[in-house]
User: What shape does this take?
Amino acid sequence: MARKKAKEGSEELRGAREEIKALIEELIAGDEIDEAGDEAEAGRTLPMIPLRGMTVFPDMVLHFDIGRERSISALEKAMVRDQMVFLASQKDADTDLPTAGDFYSIGTIAKVKQMLKIPPGDSIRVLVEGIGRGEIAGMVHEVPFFKVRVNEIAEVEYESVPNRIEALMRTALERFEAYINLSQKLPPDALPPLMTIEQPSKLADIIAANIDIKTESKQKLLEALDPGIRLEMLNDILTKEMDILKIEQDINKKVRKKISKSQREYYLREQLHAIREELGEDELVEDEIKDWLDKLAELHLPEKIHEKIEKEIHRLSKIQSSSAEGGVIRTYIEWVFQLPWNNYSEQSYDLKEAEAVLNEDHYGLEKVKERIIEYLAVMELAPAMKAPIICLVGPPGVGKTSVAKSIARAIGREFVRMSLGGVRDEAEIRGHRRTYIGAIPGRVINGMKESGVMNPVFLFDEIDKVGNDFRGDPASALLEVLDPEQNKEFTDHYLEFPFDLSKVLFITTANTTDTIPRPLLDRMEAIEVPGYTEEEKVKIAERYLIPKQVREHGLAEKQLSLSEHTIHDIINFYTRESGVRNLERNIAGIARKAARKVVEDKAEKVGVTSGNLEKFLGKKIFRYDVIENEKMVGVTTGLAWTAVGGTTLSIETAMIPGNGQLSLTGQLGDVMKESARAGISYIRSIADELNIKKDFYKNYDIHIHIPEGATPKDGPSAGVTMCIAMISTLTGIPARQDIAMTGEITLRGNVLPVGGIREKVLAAHRAGIRKVLLPKENERDIDEIPENVRRKMEFVLIGHAKDAIEHVLTKSPKRPAPRKRVPAAQTGKTATGKPKAGK
Assistant: This one.
């Protein structure tokens, strides 16, 4: 009987389930059938997911987990359709089975970006993006999921934001920034993206989404449709939250202060002492401290330094060595004992040997070699003399860095190099204070530790490229290092005691002294390292570069041959530099191709000549114009200095009918333009003397052009050249182009001295010019020109522009002096020229 009743009950239960299933299928079918009808009515029909304890705003992307069956069904329905859902917050987060009245009517229309099932269980993690606000207009059905008809709420957008709204936006940004700083829950980079938002509604929504407030408060912000009202509410909430956060901070501080520091330290110290006894660490630490004290006694340091280091060692003995502070002290003590206290290199004072080493490593550079030999001679006579601070100034690739290494080898010292290019932090020089985590000494002290001696050769490379910013000025820190009067007591921030650098031979390198601060330059002895002449480059290539590249590319000495004429062609047509860096690069390219021929073609010897050079290096890159003995009106030859050596300038002038304008083209700098104007003023002052119309500057325009317009040009040294070119144009007298000149012009026509004479003369020689006009005051610079070039050149020293006129113009522009009329009585002839009759 019981079995029969149970069977009947199960059949009734099965029947009820079938009815529910049929009802659900009918609803789903009706939902599909009525889709078009729903869309036709006001609003749009969307599946709805009730949210517990959270609110989603427009323009917000976030993920959350759902596990309720109706929410999962709504999500699945949305994924089948267009992935759009309506998100509404529940009024009570504890309600598990909400009905139509359990959630707010205003919510967010969102798009499902991603869904992921979370094992174990049936939960799903959903990633959604808020699209816009919406208001429930009606409930379509609640089973098997919530489906609602939603009216979209359009956001208010401004083409021009009113001043009041703009003020509210700024206030909101300022308070949100303060909120970020106080809460420490949001990263600082959350603020910058908000600075670019122009619409107030979007700004308010994003800030509201990122602050930690109750769901009810967020819902009020969501329901505030007017952007101004929404921003006012947001500012009030932010102000309240900041007040709460400040109170929380005060409470935390008070709680921390209530813990007795002394009791806490005593308790922890006793625990650590017991642990150390158990581990047997006390004896190890004591032995280490004893060894340090013995080393300290052996160093015989100055009294103040000795006391400081001894104090640090005793501090370490009183605290746990494995603690953070113990690690800092231990690192400090180890650094101190790694410094080369009282260790010196055995220096060689053999001048001939030192000179031989320098000559072996470098060709030329006579001034540098001479200065080092002089230093060694003085050191032998006066060992206590302070080392000089030498600054090698010259263009790239002339061997400044490598000669510093050779100096160290020549005098038998250790070599340390520190590149200063791009260094902007003072701590690179002086180190960091020990209060910073991971602090270490600066690179000067680190270099001394690596050298292991107190008297190395220390190279500061590229000192002209030191920068500065908010972290300090490294150039100012170098003042103490490079001052012989101060570097005996150089104090690193990390060591906190003076360290003697007076025995160090400091050498610095720079491409120019213009960017070196004057106080720093004043402490150094600048030695100019000029660019190499063509003959010097040939010798360097034959003695150093070719053997080096042959060796590095695995070739035998006789497997590659380059004639002297070929090297000249490489220098003239494939490089344009003061040094030899590109020359070596081209020789390396030839060596690579020679190696390939040896391997592929089994060639026993590869010969490179001027005829087949293009097969190895390609077409010629540069050209060197040889100035012919031509005479042209308005065209003169000038000389200029560049970072890669000297060059010739062809200066062209033209006179055009106009109203007195002066045109300058060819990328001329301000100084060059001023020199041209000074030349014009000088010409106007002597127009009568030069047989030039006085009103030429009113009726004619003058155009000055310097070819190679893509290359910037500046400086005063082309002043006299431009002046003579303009005189040639205004007088119509041709100028000789085979005479080059340089010099600054004044309003009185005086020719002032200029720089770079050596490089300029070499450029003139290379261009086939054999006569050069130089300012009188540059006479001393002629001795710097190589003797083989000097012998072939004629130098004319000029003090005034008139001197240049005599040499450059083919005839004198001066007006011929009028002939005086002599009375016939004085000449013995009549007015007709016949002899007067005698009395």
Q: What stands out?
A: The radius of gyration is 45 Å. The chain has a mean pLDDT of 81.
